[in-house]
């Protein structure tokens, strides 16, 4: 899933791409993009999936059959905001863990050097 936020007039699309236009008064496109990348949707897609030469495909009829949770639009915005906050927190935690691991390596090296000398 990808989100194109501007009109692409006079553009051609590859035959394997399914373009969806949403009713913006009811649906936040960023919310749908996030949901389409979720495990909930992934499991629905991968269950009956067909592959040709290792490429996974879904057709428009299968896409229309997906069960997509659709809360009111204002709640969609709240969900997007919360997911973004969680993603930021996770990124910060990863940086902290990497920094702690680096410090651990330096301390181990310093202890080894001190023990040898």
Features of this protein?
single chain; mainly alpha; 2 domains; two-stranded antiparallel sheet; elongated; Restriction endonuclease subunit S; endonuclease activity; nuclease; restriction system; DNA binding
Number of helices: 4
Number of domains: 2
By DSSP, the count of extended strands is 2
The best one-word shape is: elongated
Average pLDDT number: 88
| N/C terminus separation | 58 Å
Strand content: 5-15%
Q: SSE order in H/E notation? A: HHEEHH
Taking all Cα atoms into account, the compactness measure Rg is 22 Å
| Strand order in space, largest sheet | 1-2
Largest sheet: 2 strands, antiparallel
As residue ranges, the low-confidence spans are none
How much helical structure, as a percent, in the residues?
Answer: 55-70%
Query: Which structural category do the helix and sheet elements fall into?
Result: mainly alpha
GO biological process, one term: DNA restriction-modification system
Protein name: Restriction endonuclease subunit S
GO molecular function: DNA binding; endonuclease activity
Keywords: DNA-binding, Endonuclease, Hydrolase, Nuclease, Restriction system
Please tell me about this protein's structure.
With 117 residues, the protein is mostly helical. The protein folds into two domains: 70 residues, no CATH class; 47 residues. It contains four helices and two strands. It has a two-stranded antiparallel ribbon with strand order 1-2. A hairpin with a 2-residue loop joins strand 1 and strand 2. The longest helix is centred in the C-terminal third of the chain and has 44 residues. The chain is elongated.
């Amino acid at each position: 899933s990808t989100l194109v936020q501007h009109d692409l007039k006079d553009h051609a699309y590859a035959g394997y791409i399914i373009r969806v236009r949403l009713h913006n008064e009811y649906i936040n496109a960023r919310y749908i993009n996030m949901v389409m990348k979720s495990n909930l949707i992934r499991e629905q897609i991968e269950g009956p999936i067909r592959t040709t030469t290792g490429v996974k495909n879904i057709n428009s009829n299968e896409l229309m059959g997906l069960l997509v949770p659709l809360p009111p639009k204002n709640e969609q915005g709240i969900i997007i905001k919360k997911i973004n906050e969680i993603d930021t927190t996770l990124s910060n935690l990863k940086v902290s863990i990497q920094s702690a691991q680096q410090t651990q390596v330096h301390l181990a090296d310093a202890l080894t050097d001190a023990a040898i000398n």
